[in-house]
C-alpha cells in the first residue's frame, strides 16, 4: 500500500487506535464517563500535537531558501517522515541548482573567452545577455545595459535597418564612433521563435592585411609595367627593318638591357624580401670578420661610386655573430643608398665600432638628406621620398625594407638621423651578446 492510504493507515495505527483502545479500556474498567473523558483528552492532545507540528513545518518552509541545503527537522511519527521527505527533496533541488549554477558559470566564462561579440536580443531588440567581446565591439556593458534596446546603444546609420531585415548571408560592416580605427562585421542569427543572436567579428587586421596585399600587388605591377612598356616599345622599332639604323639599334639594345636589369633587380629584391618574411631566423650564423666585410663593402662602394665620392672606412669593433650573407646584404643596401643619394664630390663614412656595450654599424653621408616627416616611413616597401631620383639611380624602393627585416632577425635596431641638404646617418645597433671579443 502506497500514497495517501499508507499515510492514513499509519495515522490510524499510531494515533487513533491507541487513543480509542485506551478510552475503551477506561470505559470498561471505570465506567463510560471515564471512557469518553480519556477519548476527548486523547483527541485534544492529538490535535494540539498536530497543530504544533503544522506550525513548525510552516516556519521551516518560510525559513528555508530554495537554493539552500538543510538539516532534517526533528519530529517523530508521521510528521517525522513527512518532514524528512520534504527535506530530502529540498536538498536534491539545492544540489541540482548548484550543478546548474556551476555549469552556467563555466559556460559564461567560455563565452567571455570567445573573441567574437555575442548578444542575445528579445523580440523587441532588448538586450538579454552579452559576452565581454560585445562590450569591446559594441559598447554593451552588463548589468548596466540589461534590457536596453540595442538600437539605442549602437547608433551607426543603417544598423537599425539591418537588424530589422537581417539577412545572415551578408554581414553589416560597422565602425563604432568611439573607435573609428576598428572595423567589425555584424551578423544576426534567429534564436528560437522571436529572439535574435547578434554576432560581431573584429575584421580590422584582416582588412589591413588585405589592403596591404592589394597595395603591394599594385606597386609591383606598376614597377614592372614601366620597364616592360619601354622594352616592348623598342621591340616594335626592331621589327620595323627600315625605321632604325645600326647605331640606333645598338643604343636601343643598351636601353632595353638597362630596363631588363632593372626588372631583374626588382624581382631579386622581391624574392629576398619574401624569403626574409617567410623564415623567422637566419638559416646559419657565424662570427663574421667585420674588417673583411667592411673591405668588401668599400670595394663595392667604390665600384658603384666610380670615383665620384670620397669613401672612408673605419673598423674598430670585434667580430659580429650573424648570417654573413644577410649582414652583407643589409650593410650593402645602406652603402649603396649613401652613394646613390649623395651628389658627386660628397663624402661617405662607413664605420663599425663597439659603443655602450653594443656593436654599431653606421653609414654617414653628406648627401641630399631626408625631411623629418618622411623618416618614420622610409622602411616601408616602395616608400620613396623622391621617386624620380630613386628610379634614376636604379632603386627598387625595397632596400630599406630588406635592411629592416635583416636587422630584426639579428635583434638589431635601426635609427636614422637626417637633415635636408646636409646628409644622413643610418645606424644599426646590435646587442652585446652578438659581439665576439678577441676575434
Ligand atoms: P630605393 O631603392 O628607392 O633607394 P630604399 O628602400 O633603399 O629604396 O630607400 C627608401 C627611400 O629612402 C629612398 O627612395 C630615398 O628617398 C630614401 N633614402 C634612403 N637612403 C637615403 C640616403 N642615404 N639619403 C637620402 N635618402 C635616402
Automatic annotation (TrEMBL):
Query: Which UniProt keywords are present, listed alphabetically?
Result: ATP-binding, Cell membrane, Kinase, Membrane, Nucleotide-binding, Phosphoprotein, Transferase, Transmembrane, Transmembrane helix, Transport, Two-component regulatory system
Q: Give the enzyme's EC designation.
A: 2.7.13.3
**GO terms classed as biological process:** cellular response to phosphate starvation
The compartments listed are:
Cell inner membrane
GO CC field: plasma membrane
Domain spans labelled Histidine kinase: 219-434
Any Pfam family: HATPase_c
From the Swiss-Prot or TrEMBL record, give the protein name. histidine kinase
Q: Tell me how this protein sits in the membrane.
A: Multi-pass membrane protein
